[in-house]
Structures are given as structure tokens and as C-alpha cells.
Amino acid sequence: MQTWSIKKILDWAINFFKVKGIPQHRLSAELLLSGVLNLSRMQLYLNYSYVLTPQELKKYKNFILKRLEFVPIQYILSEAYFRNIKLYVDRSVLIPRPETELLVDKALLCIKEILNCKKYVNILEIGVGSGAISISIALEIDNILTDDKSGSSKSDLSWHLVAIDSSSGALKIARKNAEDILDSSKLGNIEFIEDDIIPEKDLKFIEKYKKNIDLIVSNPPYISEADYQKLPREVKEYEPKSSLLAGESGLEVYEKIFSKIKPYIASDLCYIVLETDPRVSDSLKKLAGSQFDSKGVEIDKDYNKRDRILTIRI
Fold first, then answer.
1. Which pTM does this prediction carry?
2. Which of 39, 104, 115, 236 could make a disulfide contact with 231, Cβ separation 3.0–4.6 Å?
């Protein structure tokens, strides 16, 4: 019976994926084998002579067959990494991208400025998906809970986060990830709601948050119908269309968000932080300027110097 060491099976899989035209053939082979053996990619190379068991070989073969169908690695392994956390993901949610980490960075900067003006911050995430953004904010907010101006201690400051998604499947995953990652005190500060942008029929929500949301953060769908058709196969065939496709222009969901959040914007200071794309960023900036009496609209670039994060200060 033929035996397969880590080195032998990796060499074979890398070449097989390359011949079949699988994107990132080496990375695909390594990550899938790491998932089978519960080893890091570095550990694979430190254990080159390890011989896989029949059960491990069978599992790796099943993973390879899925990848041949261009199923994203994250969906095969049911996990994705974002900033400092590992998230459970399936086809109910968009796979979090590295660029979206910049959205969290910007949101945290805005939270810090808000807490320099008052002792609490109400945060609304529209389209929570896997929970990557909300959970990251909840995990990292302690690092900025210091009022630089007044010298208040962390115990004097508080936060609450409302995470909304129209998909019950996405909310189920976001809750699962939050429960797995956050401690009970942080989890108690997050409210999950199933609705489309704003729960307009929820009288308790309206009473509590009208003119009382300090930060709105979202990575909404922003891909136009024409651009959606050009997406890679592994994105178009497997990731949720509703999380990607905005409409004919790519601005449709932004327009909907802007129209619905106006009654909830805090009267003293509010930030709206949105992920965008170079193909719609200029139009989005003009739209934001026309919709709000803002104190400034700016766009930050991503790692590739492309327009990525739009911030509105109101």
C-alpha cells in the first residue's frame, strides 16, 4: 500500500491544482492540509516526514475535490481569519477581506473621538454578516476607552453595539461567533436584530435610538450589475449574492442606508464609516455630500492605494 508523507502529498496537490488552474494553487494545498491535520502551514514543513492516516487522506481528498469546483477555501474549512480572530463561516455570509480590517481601524478612531466628548457611544453596524466587524470592535474597544481630555477612567465610559442583518442565517453565524469569541460582559453589550437596515416598526428601538446613534459602520453591497458578472467564479458561484450586488449603479444600498438612518443620527456628533470601491467612491462621496449637512467627507485608501473607506462626520 502506498504511503503519503506530508511532503509527498503536498508536492502532488500543489502540482495537481496548478494543472487544473486553481487560483493560489500552493496556498490552497497547504491550507487544506493544515485544516485536515490541525497544523499551521509552518508546522507542515517542520513535519515533512509525517505519514497521513487513511482517514486523513480521505478527508484531504474530499477537500481537494471541493476545491476543484472552485469552492472557496474558507467555506471548505468553515473558518476565516480577520484581524486577531478566527470566525466560523459558511455560504450564508460573505468571506471577510483584509481590506475590511481598515474599516475597523477607522471605526475605532471615530469611537475614540466620540468618547473624548462624552462618556458613552452607541454603535450601529448595518449588515453584520459573520460578525467580523462588530466582534473586532468589541474586542478592541478597551484599548481606546480612555478619555484623553478629561482623564476619565475606563470604568466611567460605556458602549453599546446594535448589529443588524436582514439574513437570519447570517445573524445565526454572527451570534455563534460572538458567543465563541467574546466574554459575557462584552457579549452583553451587543444586540442582534434581524431587519433591513433599521427596524422601523420596533417602537422600543425607535424610542431608544432616535437621534442617539453615534457611529454607523457598514460594509454594504456595492458591486454594480455589470461588475458582478466579471467576478471570479469562486466569488460569484458561492458567496451570497445579496452581500455583493447593489444594483445597476452600485450606489443603491448606500442610498437606502442614508435615507433610513437620518432620524437616528446623534445631534451632537456622529460618524458614518462605510467600505466602498474605487468604481463608485467618487459618486458615493458626492451622494454623501448631498445627503448630509456634514462637517467633512473623506476617503481613505487601502493597502493597494485604492479608495476603500468613506467617512462622514456629522
1. 0.92
2. 236
